[in-house]
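User: Hey, quick favor. My workstation is busy. Could you predict this chain's structure for me?
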Amino acid sequence: MMASLSRLFRFNPNAPKLSLRVVFVVPFLLQIFASVGLTGWLSFRNGSNAVNDLATQLRVELSNRILQELNTYLETPHIVNQINVDTLKMGLINLNNTSLMERYLWNQLKQFKTTSYIGIGLQNGYYIGANRNDDGTIEFDIVDQRTAGKFEKWLTNNQGDRSQLLSVRKNYDPRVRPWYEAGVKAGKPVWSEIYAYFGSRVLVISANQPIYNQKKQLLGVASTDLTLERISQFLNNLKIGKTGQTFVMGKNGYLVATSTLEETFIVHQKEKETERIQAVNSSNPLTQATARYLLKSFVNLDQIQQPTQLTFDLNGKQQYLQVTPLSDSRGINWLIVVVVPESDFMAEINANTQTTILLCLVALLFATLFGIYTSRWISTPILRLSQASQAIAGGELDQQIPVEPIQELSILANSFNTMTQQLKTSFNELEKNNAELEQRVEERTADLRLEKERSEQLLLNILPEAIAEQLKQDTKAIASAIEEVTILFADIVGFTPLSSQVPPIELVSLLNEMFSIFDHLAEQHGLEKIKTIGDAYMVVGGLPLPKLNHAEAIADMALEMQAALSQFQAPLERFNIGSKFQIRIGINTGSVVAGVIGIKKFIYDLWGDAVNIASRMESSGEPGRIQVTEATYERIKNQYIFEKRGKIPIKGKGEMMTYWLVGKK
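Assistant: No problem, here it is.
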């Protein structure tokens, strides 16, 4: 800008001189305004492009995940039916042996977690079925010679035996049920129409396969049910933007499942009949609008034969839409619909645009005020200096420098020619000295910073960060009660006898390798290592800062400790020892007091009955197993697999109920 102005006025000696204050303020204001405005515009454009790419990727990934999960859901019932038919053909089970069939179906429900009901209806009117309730209990439905055509519903115990007769229903004939008729009519594996369990408000779809003897005579139909509520629950657990939704609908327009968990059917109390709801009549506005748009765009939904991406407006807001067909040879003909409002992605972009405009205005105002102040601050001393230089150098200059079109600089040009060389020499020397001084300061500062970081890291290796910060402020005893934590004690079985076979230095090195693995696991799961005593290891979850999933994190670490130690064989081979390490682990959940006491050699420790019980769980356990208390079991029993050990005597506590932690569900 300065060079342009110079060229503009160079050949016009009569051109008006520009004020130094104007030259300082105007160009910089224009540059700032242009830079901030251009940056904001580019940011908005790039953000919009990124939103479109992200929305496309999100729709595709979600649709593929849903498609993969539904294929697994829908294939499992047919696998169960085929297993049952093959088992019957091989003569491994007898349809007339009700007791044997009950046990067989009970075990199948235990194996196939996604199935809700497995049944076999016979051509003679007999029927046996096993139903899994929401609480995990299993019921038997029986119609045989003994019941004389009555439908008996029995509750089972944990061993799969009948325990209680729940109800008796007269005149039940499986041969007139939709699933039986669908299997007989198709003569091959087939899906039934979606229908409701009798006496229930649950919609299901049945996988059905006819059973024939060697003479191709119909013996009955094997059926396995999949409740549509399971699909809705799966969809509900997906994260679809902030307000996005997904639903599954048949190509006939009826809802199958939805992430909003809304009812997909209506029960008419007078007729006690179930009427399914079409997607265009959904109670959810977004689902309803999406279905209407699809019907308007395609007229016939059978036209959708491959994944399709669309956009449409709802109340002036754009919606991103992905439709993926799902069909098989057994009768499934569904559509997976994922819809995400553009506002889920654009809210932050719009907010950033507003922020950019505001910052532009603030920057312009600030630059204006700062430019006015700076111009005054610079021009006033220059004017005084020019007047002084005229008095010193008036008439003594042999050469003249070009006169610039700025009033203040035109006066300075006549007086600074004689002082240029001296000022340059002095400035260079001063700059050199300043550079050396700054280099020394930077080097010393870097050394001090490195030493401080080393000290901080050493302290954090001994104490938790929160406790270390407290001790920096106050060296008095720090202790606090924590309402609920989970404690793990682990002991390496057979390590003490090993000390007689391995040199002490090698023994410590071996122990360090194992405990380094445990330390890594503790850090990975956000747990706090407390201490090691010999070959024992103690870790806790839920302190010094609260952790909601402390019990789950401890359980995961315990399972991973077992897995890691089971592979820890290589170090033993160095000493020609063929045995493997085994670890005994005990876990308990309860309240403790945690803190640091004393004034020297600080150590962060725990106190309380919960700590003692956790230690007893380890000492009374078995090599290679994880023993947990009932308190821990109750907290995580739905996420992990347990074996009940029963009551065992615990020193100082009497008999306590304990469990073996086996794995994660």
